[in-house]
Amino acid sequence: MNRQVSHAVLAAAAILVLVLIGVQAVDPVLYAAKNISTAAHADPATIQKRSPGDAASLVPLMDELLGETGTLALTIKLQDYESAERDLARYNELSRRFDRLVVTLDVSGTDIGEFQQNNRQNQDALAALLNDTRRFDALQRLEIEVRGDDEQHMTVIYEGEALRQKMRETFSAYARREAATVRIAEHYEINATPYQESVDHFAEVADAANGWQEEINGGGTGTGGTGSGGTVQSPLVIAVTPVEGSYGDVLLIGGIHAAGKSGAPVEIYVDSRLAATVALDDDRTYVHSYRVGRILAGPHLAYATAGTIYSNVAAFEVLPKNTSITLSLAEVNGTAVACTGNLTADDGRPVTRAPVLIRVDGETLVGAETDGNGTYRADILLPAGEHALRAEFHAAGYPLNASESPTETVILRGEGLSPFPFAAAIAAAAGTGWYLRRRRSEESTPAAEPEAAPSPEVARPTPQVSIAGLPPREAATVLFCTLRARLGLPETKTPRDCARIAPAYAGFFERYERIRYAGETPSEEELTDMERIALGGDADRA
User: Is-contact 207 279, C-beta < 8 A?
Assistant: First the structure.
């Protein structure tokens, strides 16, 4: 095989490799096993699906959840708030794991679904108990400090009374769930003793609040607005209508101030937090439209103040609602996906300004928030490949049950391939072809012979030129150009090239080379002789 053939084969092989790499890079096939299961691979098509009714994996979690209720209620009763915070965080994490597993196994319509609903309400109740107990403990210390200041003392007493009633209502709801929870636990042979103990601990905390309030009120539980020792009826009355509602409902909180004046401000408190300030009407009544939003499900208390006068305490209950959340995926580009969806309550009302989490590949969490229409959007950057995403609403602080969207998948191909490697490959192929063609041309072309001086018969006609009045060196240049043109030599030829091509005129060209490059100045005699030769005279005299 000669050299030309070997070079051609090498170039063809290089081009073939580049083409194959380009095709594979555009559409890679990383793994394409179908209906195959090995020790290192389990194809989903060959795996038998788990029975939806299989609750065996849920029982250990249910046991842990009931155990955590007893531990958490005990630490709250002992006023070990730091440990209680840790216990509550663990309880919430276990509850989230349990909720996800219930959705995965599709058992929400069974008694396990009932257990799940009760557990969610227990979560809210124990979280409220921790917050209320901590605040009640602070009020007990504050009450001692403000004795002697009637206005401050009355504020503490009313807030304490509001908390006491709220804790009592929360305990009542917690205790009502005991029978159903124990029944389900016994059905799955789960130890319900820790949960039953949590009910007892809860009752002791509520009873302690009752005892302190009775002591402050001198043996009664009155909520009069004139002092701390009797049960005088306050002239400021409050009521909530209706007495229960759910997320998005509007409750009217209002009443009458018999001793008030038109336009006087009335402050309305819900769970000891200022909810609104309204003015008395001409008929001495007041009202505030309270929309149920981010507030825990369960009992709540409202009271009003007008200066130093406090109203009675009115109770109302917020009922929980189920929610649903959707998720739609749209590829923005090769590395980003747009996640959009809606969060609504079971009656179709949008859940507004609520936090939403998007779980990517079962691990990474990306936060988003719903707008005024319950719609959320998040653009997530992801590496190339297939990804599974799910939207989650954890309902923390809302009178709503948590929900998750179905898992959606998206395949991202990554950023488009740069055109530069392909351009480089084409350029390399073109360069290889040019190189081989050049070598072939050089090998087939004989060595170039020295250029011969043009024969006299093909010499061009003598040009007409005049050097009169020109400086000597410029005149020499004009004569050189004249002779070069007369001999038919290219304008690109230097004096030395011309001397080699036309040796008969070497003397002329060598003299001009010294004039042009050495800076010599020709004499009048030399210019006359050069003019004669340039115009067709005898070259021998040059």
Answer: no
